[in-house]
Amino acid sequence: MSLSPNSFAYVSALVRRETAVIYDAGKEYLVEARLLPLAREAGEADVDAYVVRIQRDLVEARKAIDALTINETSWFRDNTPYQAFSEVMLPALLTNRGATRHLRIWSAACSSGQEAYSIAMLLHELLPAGWSAEILATDVSTAMLERVTAGRYGQVEMNRGMPATRLVRYFTRVGSSWEVAPELRAMVRTQHLNLAAPFPPLPTFDVVFLRNVLIYFEMDVKCDILRRTRDLVAPDGFLLLGSSETTLEMDVPWHREPIDRVQVLRPLVPATALTGA
Amino acid sequence: MSMSMRYDEPQLADVLALIEEVWRSFVGVDEPLLPAEPDTGSVAYAATVTITGGWDGAVTLEFGVGTAEAVSARMLGLDEITEADVADAIGELVNMVGGNVKSLMPGPSALSLPVVSTGRIAHSNDTVEVCRCELSWAGLPMAASVHAHRD
Amino acid sequence: MHALIIDDSRAMRMILRRIVTDLGFTCAEAGDGEQALQQIADGPRPDICMIDWNMPVMDGYTFVTRVRSQPELRDITLMMVTTESEHGQIVRALAAGAHEYVIKPFTPDAIVEKLTLLGLVRDGVPA
Q1: For chain A, which end, N or C, has fewer CB atoms within 10 Å of the first or last residue's CB respectively?
Q2: B29 to chain A: closest CA residue
């Protein structure tokens, strides 16, 4: 039961586009080997049927891409956005939120939760006494949300981007896995959310992390998501995309404000609001 | 694949996950480790470590003809490979798999230095195989097993 | 930038050597802590030592304590690279003065990221 040339071509193109990983001629057996278990789990007859499925099912597309790139996401991914968060965004918010002394962060495609817990570590270290913060971690995959709630990560994952001092401060070993500390878990709440669909009722956020997920959508859906997200962010709030993502050429209500080489987006206030009409 | 269901022994799923992590890290991601039928050929190389202390046992990797050389060449980035290179490479692989199995089991315990042989390892009467997986890498046969000490 | 790799496993030394030389470091190797101290004394001074824990003659933990007890060696970054993953042991190593800790197995990316966190590498080249 082997993969059709069309299926292979589709999968190669998808993986190359999203991840730069190359599956060229001769690697068909690899795609077959990696997708067959997923196909079976998804109830598809074979890999070709599964490839048809991933063209319309974002959850399965994500699983397929993960399986084909064996991607271990990193803690504090790309590092500089987290530095910008600690050194610029958070101090600004501490200045401006004195009345409520409460911050709301949204990790909008949280995957297995490393982003949400990375943010939690920084908040745990930097929030002054008397302040509180909540991190909403959402994803379209309930399996991923369960991973966030479990807060357990493998040994190889713990090497990626995590300073050793934070490893021992915030994690305990359980078998050959590492489990996140209760004080971080208390800051993170999970919720199922499909970015491409209308958002459920959500609070106003101070910072949104929307990193490395827009790549999965067509341009018109990307713009739509960015527009709807703008309505959920405070006027002095911040949006972070993935390090190689950009809003150039897009008609979206955000303006780019570099912070130490990091592309940060700030909400564009509508003209009517400016005139106070 | 065979396994025991006692929970004070390493579980097959955990051992397999450990081996996959070691393989992905050092032997690369281009060829995955896949489940396989037991190989009918001979064992060309085996590497083993013992764990003593809170849990007593051994972790063994067996390689069919050609497998150990191919794995070692990939791991060390060499085009030509000697028997000594193979011993270094698969010794380190079993050291890492064993080190991780050790962390699954009650401690404190110590890991022995790896022992590498050209041929199967013979296990004594006071051990029992509690876990075994037949695998193939790049179409080449290999197997991993965990033995537990029994008084 | 110069790296000193300290591990009794020749295979591991070769793997780490490849990772750091690909980044542009020069590299030396030692099979145990005592050989490593000798190399440091003889020169050239490493910017970073990548240190296994379990080694004959002198283990990695002891090596770390020895280096950190010598003020003239305080600029050397010490990174443990070991299968030892017990929480208390990692705390001990950091308390003894290790700056970073990598648990085996690791990917080359993980080493590059740790070196970046330590300020020894920036944008994929020695800082």
Answers
A1: C
A2: A70
Pairing of strands A177-180, B33-35: unpaired
Maximal C-alpha separation, chain A: 66
Strand C48-51 with C2-6, pairing: parallel
**Interface confidence (ipTM) of the complex:** 0.94
User: What is this structure's pTM?
Assistant: 0.87
* Spatial contact of C50 and C5, defined as CB atoms under 8 Å apart: yes
pLDDT for residue B118 is more than 80: yes
Asked if C85's CB is within 8 angstroms of B103's CB, the reply is yes
CB-based contacts of C59, cutoff 8 Å, min separation 6: C32, C33, C53
Per-domain residue ranges for chain B? 12-149
pLDDT tens column, A85-98: 999 999 999 999 99
Task: Say whether pLDDT at B121 is over 70.
Answer: yes
Structure-block tokens of residue A20: 């730069």
Residue pair A17/A64 in contact (Cβ under 8 Å)? The answer is no
Q: Indicate the residue of C87, C106, C109 with minimum beta-carbon distance to A172.
A: C87
Distances in Å between the Cα of A3 and the Cα atoms of A30, A50, A62, B32 are 10, 10, 19, 17
Residue A28, pLDDT > 60, answer yes
